[in-house]
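Notes from the 1:1 (GR / supervisor)

We went over the backlog. Supervisor wanted to see one worked example end to end before approving the batch request, so GR pasted a single chain during the call. The sequence is below; no edits were made to it. Supervisor asked that the structure be written out right there so they could see what the output format looks like.
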Amino acid sequence: MRDSLENINPVVYQKKTERSVLPEDEDENVIDEIDSREVFDLIRNINDPEHPLSLEELHVVDEKNIHVDDKGNEVSVSFTPTIPHCSMATLIGLSIRVKLIRSLPTRFKVTVSIAPGTHDSEQAVNKQLADKERVAAALENTHLLSVVNQCLSTKKSRR
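Structure output shown during the call:
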């Protein structure tokens, strides 16, 4: 982690209200397809690597940029870095990918990418995030895995 922040004054957005849990949501006999809101709920509280804020609060993730094909077993998330030259974009994408791989049923193919036109190195970052071998190698790095786990932790304490 560097000592200086790239985006020292990020715009902070209000969080959406949590989805209320209905009785049928808790009924194990009801088949409940996974939808974009459920995926959003999984990733909305991921911590930003630089700020004590969630990806939702920084508007990095938004439900409208999540596409789910439950029958086709595919989940696609595009995210928007707060600045076009964000050096943390790969780490943010990796954190989203890891959270979804850990949370969703294994039948899902998870794709995470930067929203088109929102980052200077969009193609390079997307290539890294799409490469299973690179992702696996990154997660074998204990320091990097520790940083990802901090992003995924529920407490807001910072490094």
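Supervisor's comment: DSSP finds six helices and three strands in the chain.
Batch request approved.
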